[in-house]
Design a protein that fits this description.
Number of strands: 8
Order of helices and strands: EHEHHEEHHHEEHHEE
Strand order of the largest sheet: 1-5-6-8-7
Structural class: alpha+beta
Largest sheet: 5 strands, antiparallel
Oligomer: single chain
Number of helices: 8
CATH topology of the largest domain: Muramoyl-pentapeptide Carboxypeptidase, domain 2
CATH architecture of the largest domain: 2-Layer Sandwich
Length: 223
C-alpha cells in the first residue's frame, strides 16, 4: 500500500462548487458519488445534484461498474469537454504556429525549436534542483516547478523507495498531440536535470489514453 500523495500544487483553489467537483475528478481520477462526497466534505445528495447538472452540460459522464456484491455503481469521470475546462496554453495559436513551422522549415526546423525549448527548460530546472542532494528534495523541487507551469503536479512516495511524479494536467496537450517530440523532450529534461544516478520512467501518458502523465523516479542501484 502506497503512502498518501504529497501535493505540491500551487494553483489557486477552485472557487465554485462545480469547479471543485471537476477539479477533484481531474486530479484524483474517476470516483463514485459517495467517494466524491467524502473528498469534497459534502453530502452524497448534494454531489448527485451537481453531477446531474454537470452531466447535462456534458462535462461529466458515468460508467456502471461492479465493485463487489450488490448493484453496479456509477463511476464518474470527466468528458473531453470537462477536461477542456482546464487551460491548454493558447492551443489554437500553438497548433497554427506548429503547422506554420512545418510548412516553412520542415520537420528539421520543428526539431530545432523543440531542442531550443529543451535547453531552456534544462537551464531553468537545474537552477532550482541543483541545491538539493537528496532525491526526495530534488523530485519535490521539480514538482514545484511543474505545478507552477500548470501541470497540477504532485508526488507520491512508493514503498520501495521510489517516487511517482504525477502530472494531472498537460497545459501543452494540443502541441504534444501535434508533435510528440515535445513529450520526448520533457522526459529527456527530467532525466538530465535529476542526473545520471537517477532512473526516470514514464508510466502513464495522456496521449496513450491515460487520464494523467506519471513518472517513476528512483536511484539507480550501484553495479
Amino acid at each position: 500500500m502506497t503512502k498518501p500523495a504529497a501535493s505540491v500544487q500551487t494553483e489557486a483553489a477552485p472557487e465554485s462548487a462545480d469547479d471543485r467537483l471537476l477539479f477533484a475528478l481531474k486530479t484524483k481520477g474517476a470516483m463514485t458519488a459517495q467517494r466524491l462526497a467524502h473528498q469534497l466534505g459534502i453530502s452524497t445528495v448534494a454531489v448527485r445534484k451537481q453531477l446531474s447538472r454537470l452531466e447535462q452540460g456534458e462535462l461529466v459522464q458515468f460508467q456502471e461498474e461492479v465493485r463487489g456484491p450488490g448493484r453496479p455503481e456509477r463511476v464518474w469521470r470527466l468528458t473531453a469537454k470537462g477536461h477542456g475546462r482546464f487551460p491548454d496554453s493558447h492551443s489554437d495559436l500553438t497548433l497554427e504556429l506548429i503547422n506554420s513551422i512545418r510548412r516553412v522549415f520542415g520537420e528539421e526546423g520543428l526539431d530545432r525549436l523543440i531542442g531550443e525549448r529543451e535547453q531552456t527548460m534544462q537551464t531553468s530546472y537545474k537552477h532550482a534542483v541543483r541545491e538539493h542532494s537528496d532525491l526526495a528534495e530534488r523530485v519535490a523541487a521539480l514538482a514545484r516547478i511543474r505545478a507552477r507551469e500548470g501541470y497540477m503536479a504532485e508526488i507520491e512516495p512508493l514503498e520501495d523507495g521510489a517516487y511517482l511524479l504525477i502530472e494531472n494536467h498537460c497545459p501543452i496537450c494540443a502541441a504534444a498531440m501535434a508533435c510528440q517530440g515535445f513529450c520526448r523532450s520533457e522526459l529527456n529534461v527530467f532525466k538530465t536535470v535529476l542526473g545520471p544516478e537517477t532512473r526516470v520512467e514514464r508510466t502513464d501518458h495522456i496521449l496513450a489514453g491515460a487520464r494523467r502523465c506519471a513518472y517513476r523516479i528512483e536511484e539507480r542501484s550501484a553495479d
